[in-house]
Amino acid sequence: MADEREVLSWQQFGEGSRELATTIHESGFAPDVVVAIARGGLLLAGALAYALDVKSCGALNAEFYTGIDSRLDEPVILAPYLDEVSLAGKKVLLVDDVSDSGRTLKMVLGLITAADAEVRTSCLYSKSHTVLEPDFTWKRTDLWIMFPWSSLPPVTGEQAH
Questions:
Q1: Whole domain around residue 72: which residue ranges?
Q2: Which residues touch 2 (CB under 8 Å, ≥6 apart)?
Q3: What is the DSSP string of 50-66?
Q4: Greatest pairwise CA separation for the chain in angstroms
Q5: Is 160 inside a domain boundary?
Q6: Contacts of 150 (CB under 8 A, 6+ apart)
Q7: How far is Cα 64 from Cα 86, in angstroms, rounded to an integer?
Q8: Are 16 and 26 in contact (CB under 8 A)?
Q9: CATH number (domain holding residue 88)
């Protein structure tokens, strides 16, 4: 069905992030820093950082998708920028919500790797057509994913009344 969706609830997010943290821990990779690709990776990065007891967290702002199946020609990095130099020699867990095309994840991975960091990637979801399969993935789907943090429209002044 063209309108079929993968719907993630808050409860499933909690369970999935904990399962993902367990997989990362059991792999033997112990990150010094967790870096989120904002905005989608922010909540997962925070959940993984707590579960893995990593206190050092950061975010890199990137934009690629502008709506359902609507994207820019190439992913772009937005301000404020991550201080890649501070990651040199560190073990970094790079986190996003989904590796859909994988182009954003691949671009950011290149930036952090160029900063001389050891990087592993983690996403809740991965799709079959991604150009970068994350090192750690909770679930695979080719459906459009409805995340609990982005499935409702933004709050506006009219809705607040």
A1: 5-146
A2: none
A3: HHTT--EEEEEEEEEEE
A4: 51
A5: no
A6: 40
A7: 25
A8: no
A9: 3.40.50.2020
> pTM value?
0.88
Spatial strand order in the sheet of 56-67: 70-78, 56-67, 33-38, 91-99, 118-126, 136-140
Number of domains in the chain: 1
Q: What is the pLDDT along the chain (161 residues), one digit of tens a residue?
A: 457 999 999 999 999 999 999 999 999 999 999 999 998 999 999 999 999 999 999 999 887 655 555 565 677 777 777 888 899 999 999 999 999 999 899 999 998 999 999 999 999 999 999 999 999 999 999 999 999 998 888 898 665 54
Tokens (6 digits) for 43: 């909540």
**Identity of the amino acid at 109:** L
Domain membership of residue 121 (yes or no) is yes
Q: Are 33 and 58 in contact (CB under 8 A)?
A: yes
16 assigned to some structural domain? yes
Residue 155 is given by DSSP the state P
Is the CB of residue 72 less than 8 Å from the CB of residue 64?
yes
Q: Are 133 and 121 in contact (CB under 8 A)?
A: no
List b or e across 12-50, with b for residues whose CB sees 16 or more CB atoms inside 10 angstroms: ebeebbeebbeebeeeebebebbbbbbebbbbbbbbbbe
